[in-house]
Amino acid sequence: MSKEEQAMKGLWDMFKKRTWLDSFKMKERLKDYNPSEIHCIAHIGENKESNVTNLAESFDMTRGALSKLTKKLMKKELIESYQKPDNKKEVYFTLTEQGKEIYRIHKEIHQELKERDQPFFDHVTQEQFEAILDFAEKYNRHLDAQITKLGVEMKSDNL
């Protein structure tokens, strides 16, 4: 296996393990909600004036798919919609008390995950961080150029 293949396999394995561990923790505490619902609640909790357009862009989803998700969350009484007095066209979302509790638990889990991994990161040197960040930036630029060559916009359904 080449160095490139070893590096990519190592990164892929690392992200799969982290995703599995993180989702294990989320499922343990937020078992009644799927990842899309949790992340939508988190986005609304963190971003005032969340609407279908900015949620769809944030999640790389169509506006139709996002509308379906927000309707589901409203039915579960986790979010509610509102309009500004000066803009009756745009619909915004806010968390209900139950939604705020899901948001609080989600933030708490993220803090626990950060604390879980902090002992590892405490031993990573500044030079190692800089090398990782440099690699990520350069490889992302390379991938962006390849996407541009295709002449298509990258969406989640392109993956």
Description:
With 159 residues, the protein is mainly alpha-helical. It is built from six helices and three strands. Strand 2 (79-84) and strand 3 (87-95) form a beta hairpin. Helix 1 (3-29) runs antiparallel to helix 5 (97-121). The radius of gyration is 19 Å and the shape is globular. The relative contact order is 0.09. The model has no long low-confidence stretch (mean pLDDT 91).
Please give the structural blueprint.
Blueprint: H1 3-29, H2 35-46, E1 50-51, H3 52-59, H4 63-75, E2 79-84, E3 87-95, H5 97-121, H6 126-150
Helix pairs in contact: 1-5, 2-5, 3-4
List low-pLDDT spans.
Answer: none
**How many individual β-strands?**
3
The main sheet comes to: 3 strands, antiparallel
Give the terminus-to-terminus CA distance.
25 Å
Structural class comes to mainly alpha
Series of H and E elements? HHEHHEEHH
Percent of residues in helices comes to 55-70%
Radius of gyration: 19 Å
Largest sheet strand order: 1-3-2
Tell me what portion of residues adopts beta-strand conformation.
5-15%
Quick synopsis:
The protein has 159 residues and is mainly alpha-helical. Helices cover 69% and strands 11% of the residues. A three-stranded antiparallel sheet has the order 1-3-2.
Task: Tag the structure with descriptive keywords.
single chain, mainly alpha, 3-stranded antiparallel β-sheet, 6 helices, globular
